Structures are given as C-alpha cells and as structure tokens.
C-alpha cells in the first residue's frame, strides 16, 4: 500500500565508514526514501533499503545498499512506514505479541501443558505401539549387547553350585512355556555386589538372576514368583517400551536444544540405564499382575512373591535396588495389590 502523505522518522545516520553518528531525518514519499542530515541529502527507492525486523524495544535499523545505516527509537513512525510499504508484517507480529504479554504467557502455558500431556500419555502410547512391532532380531541384539555391557561393568560369573542352577532352570522352563510360549527365554545366573539380591529381564527374554537373590530365597517358589514377575516384563515388552520412551525424551530434548548428536550417543547406554533405574510404576504393576495370575494358578496364592519382596526390602533397607525394589511403586503398595489379587475369585482375571 502506498500513501501520499509523507512519513517522517527521526533518528541517527551512520555513513558506514566511521562510527560517528549524526542526527538525521528519513522521509518516505510514495516509494522513495530521502535521507536528510547535516551536509548530506540523498534519495533512493525504498525497495533497495533493508529494514531489520523489530525485536522488543530495540532500536530499529535501516540498512542502505551503500553500507550506510539509519537507526531510530521512533517505533511508531517506523511501524507506520513499514505498514505503508507492506514490510515486516509477520516479523513484527513478535512485537505485537510482546505488547500483549498475557497472551504470550497463555501460549507458553498451553505449550507446557501440551508437552506434559505428550510426555504423560502420548509418549507411552507411541512407545507401546513401537515396541509391539519391534522385530525379534532387534530385541535379541539389545539383549546380547546389554548383557555384554553388564558383564563388563557390573556382573561376575555366578558362584552358585551347578546343581542349583540346573534345578532352577528346570523349574523356570514350564513357567516360561505356560505364560509366554512365543518367547525363547534364557535364564542366566550372575553374581554382582552392585546389584545385590536382584533379578531383571532384558527386552528379548534374557532374565538375569543374582546369586544373592537365590541365597536370600527360603524356597524355590519364591524364586519362581520373582521369575514370573520378570516374565511379565518381557510379555508386556517393558524393555523396548522404556527404551522408546527414553529415546523419545532424548529426541525431544535434542530437538529443543538443537543437540542432535546427544540423542544418538546416549542411545547405546539406554538399556543399561534401564537395568539400573528400573521400570515405571505402571510397568511394575503389570508385571506383578502377570506373576499373580501365574502364582495363583500354580500355588493358589501370591504369597511366594510377597514373601520374597518383603525379605528383599528388609535385606536392602536403604540401598536403592532397581526393578524388584524400585522406589515406585513402594513395596507396601505392591504387597497390598498382590493381597487384593488373592482375594479375587480364581480366574476372575483373564
Ligand atoms: Zn519389575
């Protein structure tokens, strides 16, 4: 849009050679801009002048093709001039927003809520979908890489007598077959002070049992209870889901910070951190539910797992133990849930 009334902007002129500034006046007549200051007067087509978009209260800058510049604090006049020549409309929207800070705060809050909602519900749903279609070969690779990493960093060969390991493996086989015939489970025995009495499942069905846990158990049923819980993690694909959820967060953070390399470099250590940090509250419940159904079918009670959890808690006290004793949900909450399962009529749950 062109206006016939000249628009005048007061400001400072810099000749582009020295840092000296002079009081100057810029005038727009139609599509021609004239610059007037002490000893200087020239005119040029306004389209050849670059007007930097306004940022907050910062001084507005006009750049001329010859390297000269004109700066002005008269935001109203500059905006009027821009409107007359149809310049910086979208960019100055930022300024409009700044002037309406409640709207900006509202937008930011909306964005924050959307992020929280995505993190809370969207990401787990996406992770679940991705985990369910992850090929077995990929999961198998994760298992072998993670176990190799754990063997280098945290675990030692098992000291248990071979006969004990054989007995437990023999007891585990029917459990795995009954709960999840589609997965080829592998029960491995390790010792490791850092992990104490513990057991954890890797995404493709490798279940690691520590010597301390075997020693802490009063009978094999308690170990079966723990193994049924771990099989629950495998059936529900908690390993892959957790990795996708963490990868999603990393991706999210790396997009926000522009640090894409971080996402790829940390990805390799994800399954290890899973072992160290345990699963989410919801995942622990799901695994306990799988164990409860199996234990009730097999022994008519969830007592073996409850007894083991209680003893693990006493044995570890202040030590943070992942998975079996992850801080959330607390052991008390899990025991209550298992007791509730015992009160349900048999086969009430599918
Ligand atoms: Zn668990």
UniProtKB/TrEMBL annotation:
One Pfam family from the record: DUF7092
UniProt remark on cofactor binding: Binds 1 zinc ion per subunit.
Gene3D superfamilies (alphabetical): Metalloproteases ('zincins'), catalytic domain (3.30.2010.10)
Keyword terms: Hydrolase, Membrane, Metal-binding, Metalloprotease, Protease, Transmembrane, Transmembrane helix, Zinc
Domain DUF7092: 9-84
Family indicated by similarity: Belongs to the peptidase M48 family.
Protein name in UniProt: Peptidase family M48
Source species: Deinococcus peraridilitoris (strain DSM 19664 / LMG 22246 / CIP 109416 / KR-200)
Lineage: Bacteria, Thermotogati, Deinococcota, Deinococci, Deinococcales
